[in-house]
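Researcher: I'm comparing several assemblies side by side, and this is the next one on my list. It has 740 residues spread over two chains. Same procedure as the others: predict the full complex and return the structure.
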Amino acid sequence: MALLDVRDLSVVFKRKGTRPFTAVDGVSFSVEPGQTVGLVGESGSGKSVTSLAIMGLLPKRGAEVGGSVTFSGTELLTLSDKQLRDRRGRDLGMVFQDPLSSLNPVITIGLQITEVLERHRGMSRKEARVEAAELLDRVGLPDPGRRIDEYPHQLSGGMRQRVLIAIALACRPKLLIADEPTTALDVTIQAQILSLLSELVSETDTALIMITHDLGVVAGLCDDVNVMYGGRIVERAQRHDLFDRSRHPYTHGLLQSIPRLDAPRGEPLTPIRGSVSDNIEWEQGCAFAPRCPNATDVCWSDPPELKADDGRMLRCHNPVAIGDAVTEGAL
Amino acid sequence: MTDKTATTTEATDTDTAGTDTAGADTVGIDEARNDAAGADAAGAETATGTGEAGPGDGAVGGDDVLVTVEDLKVHFPIKRGIVLERTAGYVYAVDGVDLTIRRGETYGLVGESGCGKTTLGRGLLRLVEPTGGRIVFDDTDVSTLKGETLRKSRRRMQMIFQDPLSSLDPRQSVESILVEGMRAHGLDSGKEATRARLVELLDSVGLPESALHKYPHEFSGGQRQRIGIARALAVEPDLIVADEPVSALDVSVQAQVLNLLEELQQRLGLTYLVIAHDLAVVRHISDRIGVMYLGSLVEEASSDEMYAEPMHPYTKALLSAVPVPDPTVEDEREQILLTGDLPSPANPPTGCRFHTRCPWKQDTLCDTNRPELRDVGGGHRVACHYAEDILAGRISRHEVEPELVHPDA
């Protein structure tokens, strides 16, 4: 049985005086125990809102969540706040993009970890402090015995992110959601954090949902990759299939448009034309149609369905031909 | 010395075009650039002769150099006290950088946050006042200019900023944004001509004429960056300093802006200093790359050589840390993970600034002598005492214990 099963998840934001906005639309995917799943997309693709909906962190007022999210057989969307609080931090951990704003600035980092341990694992303050120092040591914070009494502002960005990971993993959750965990960090620090994450996750057999805009991060880390566009999943495949042979014009376009460190110099990039603001509504047709090089009349009139095709799931009327789909540079 | 010869030969193997331009340039690409910019071939010829002299004066004299930076320093004072302010120390943001930028080339400056790359770019344009050093722009010493002459000189050096929304005045229409600079430099020569020039400008950055009467908030991120580029182009500059020109943009839009920058360079013969943290972007767009660490350049080489044969330990680590969107490459990639954080630029380590995190650190020299940026052949400059030994495999990597770094130390 899947650890997490997301079925037909939708999130609609409603505000007085404005038209309702569908941020996430019919998203379905599942995560097996110990698996690493990627959720990739640009800003506005709905990837972060998906994760917040899974965690039950969206505001009750204003956001209408539909569909179902089952975690080890329990439906999460109908849980009460109290029941959710019991789960969050214990079974489900989350690491956010900006470590400074997700840590409490007026509480020492030690206390922020022991808080979780006392609440969920019923430890005494003393036990929790010992455990917290151990956790900090495991995430690679130098001199944890001293640092435990420091405040978030006394740490660098990379170290703060390590503290967040320590908090998220304090109760050995079965699932960890990491929302752009390295976007605010420098590349060498990003490499440290990514290797730490994948090491910890495989050590403890934790499942991981990795949310990012960086295809490079996904390529090295995820088993399955979901590509989102305009609130829907447009392509889902195993990472080798996706990167070696991307079939959706959006995925393909993305891979063609990012400069690669290992590409020979002087090769022009092929950008995706237009911008996200050109999208049409999914009800009308394919949201990507205005930017798509393959778009035909049907794309403007019929919304494509997510269908199994070529060993993957694909939402497209005119996918990239298999011969052309081989990404340049991939061997 | 044997090592130097070895590197030169290797560089020559990959590019047969200009064998003896050692110490001078990025061979093939540079020739193409020279043609494009309409520079005289004689310049390149002279370089061939003087090449052996090394990266210093000989090469500078022979090549068509637009900007020379000598020992540039920008130190920011740290003030303490409320009533009686005193200087408690300095942040050594840029601490002794030498570099030259040739006419028509793109020089890429990479480094992580806090390495001083942005301050270097700003210091070069004198948007921040350098503490020391010299900046020579097209044979004029910019560092001593004052008042009106300084203002006038700015016409030829423009900047493109990272965040297009905060660098454009929200209350100014695009027309007013573009005209402002032209007017300040006396390029506004009558209603008709200006109007034609504005339309031409917008057209060259791929925006419609109707954009003139709109305001920045009405555009998407990519379009705003195009306005920022048009503003820089409005005064017909020679040099454009682009500080993180694409990092605020979505991936699918980045390529549009990068292509636009390249196209404009070819058409207008512009010279770029591109500052970015994204190595893939820098490698894509630059002819030559300089890598900065804690206020100084640690390595400089042609874009291809930097990728093929990085010599400084920091460059090696930086290159190995960049994720590549290809699972096959990712699975085989050998990463050099650095431990710890960037030391505080207010209290930089003694000797080599990188020695606290360097996996190749040796017991002698590294923590006592600050390495000079020296030429190791083919214009490849590196600031490491043991670069040749590392390259030849005579020194191997070892574990590094992370040191405590306080961000506000």
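Model: For your comparison table: Chain B touches chain A through 58 residues (CB under 8 Å).
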